[in-house]
Amino acid sequence: MRRTLTALGLAATLIGCGTTTQNAVGPHAVAIGVEGSVVTPVLADGPSNPNGPWVGAAAASDAFLPGTQDTFVAVWVDVPLASDKIAQAPAAVALVIDTSGSMSGDKIKHARESALKLVESLRDGDIVSVHSFSDAVQERVAPVKLDALSRQRIASAILELKADGGTNLFEGVRMAGMSAMGAPSSHAIRRVVLISDGNATVGTTSTDMIAMLGEKAGDRSVQITSIGVGLDYNEKALNQLAIRSSGRLYHLTDSKNLPEIVQSEIALLKSTRAANAKVAIVPAPGVDLIAVEGSRGTFVNGTMEVPLGAMFAGEHKEFVVRARLRAPDSGSHPIASVRLVFNDPTEGNLERIQEAVARFDVVGDAKVAAAKVNLKAQGVFAMIDASKSTERAAVAMNDDRFEEAEKDLVATEQKLRVAAKNASSKSDRQRLEKSADKVSQARAGAGAAAAAPAAAKPMAKRKAALETNDAAMDMSGF
Questions:
Q1: How far, in Å, are 21, 271, 414 from residue 44 at the CA level?
Q2: Cα–Cα distance, 151 to 144 (Å, whole number)
């Protein structure tokens, strides 16, 4: 789950004081707990069965007309809040810092400070490596378990970091990813923390190739936390690193907030409730899965698998799966079994499985079918669709197409407001309203950039575009 600085401070507070999670489902979103599973109760306005599973699913509608039609299945995962039972799972963290010339001054100073805080916050026994990249990549500290002696050695290496040269982003991320991938099975939480302020200028500079590093990391249960500093970093590359590895993106206009961001990221690591999490969507007979929107998915023997990586207490993830179903003439039928699989650090990394089944009825009246729209599923779809349109608006701003961006953002905000009004639960309504507010703020930023004097316009435009991109990533949970 991606957070801006302000939201991160709020998230840390909520995790500490008991934020609420709700799993409201439609009549045909049936949650099934696997026998023998133990789930910590969700507090306050959680599901009606507080010991129920974390995963839910629902088709776009609870009723369809007979025949072949395209639809979607909404999937969501709500991780219970922290409890006394949480056991902090050992983590392997690879820190990779941009030390190119553009990082000179306050940026490298704050990067050093944040790196020191990261090491200070991790526990003895966690594994840490430190890399830097400019024209070339340097492994400043090979992967090592933290103890009193290794902490001193790591701190000395961090304090030696200086800014000079170009930006070999690809190689920096690749080497850090390899370090995290090499962690032993005892360290199931594996994270690359990337700090960068610029575009790749040395070595492999293709955004697509950099994005592939995120996919390879995700396939090996390594998540990438991308921290973009300033106004010159490549948001497309950092977006994809986060999305394809099920990681997070942070946008920082000012590097002085780096230490707080890293501290908040460590707080999330410490509240991990699941490791190596993934969702498997198994279609029912007569149903074909087409694609995933809102996350990365791959087909494995007819099943769609969506990696989620490590998940922390109170985290919410959601996405939709496009599907084609052939509805019979009558009856009630399943559309898909949705299975959450993860390792539970509170149970010695025992593999756990939970299931939800999305179902539908077949009706012969189009008006009855239209009245059976599943509001929970529609809210998930609205959020995913809003994320895509907001990202388009950010691209339009970068290209000086402010009228197009304005049109996209107006329509997006309206759709989110409607979805919030129709939401099936308080938590869904709040999440949709919050996203609508972010879109409204993006509109204001775009308007200010469009009206800025010629001399100030490039910076104003870039700032507005990055903040809009940040809002899009937030809506999609990265």
A1: 8, 19, 30
A2: 9
Angle, helices 402-421 vs 375-398, to 10°: value is: 160
Distances (CA, A) of 294 to 14, 30, 96, 477: 25, 22, 27, 8
Return d(Cα 54, Cα 427) in angstroms, integer: 15
pLDDT at 348: 82
Amino acid 422 reads N
- pTM exceeds 0.90 for this model: no
Say how far apart CA 288 and CA 281 lie, in whole Å.
11
Residue 18 confidence (pLDDT):
31
Q: What is the mean pLDDT of the chain?
A: 88
Instruction: Name residue 193's amino acid.
Output: V
Give the model confidence (pLDDT) of 153-206 as tens digits: 999 999 999 999 999 999 999 999 999 999 998 898 999 999 999 899 999 999
Q: Which of 247, 232, 245, 241 is CA-nearest to residue 201? A: 232
Please give the order of strands across the beta sheet that includes 67-78. 55-59, 67-78, 316-327, 287-293
- Angle formed at CA 98 by CA 103 and CA 259, multiple of 5 degrees: 75
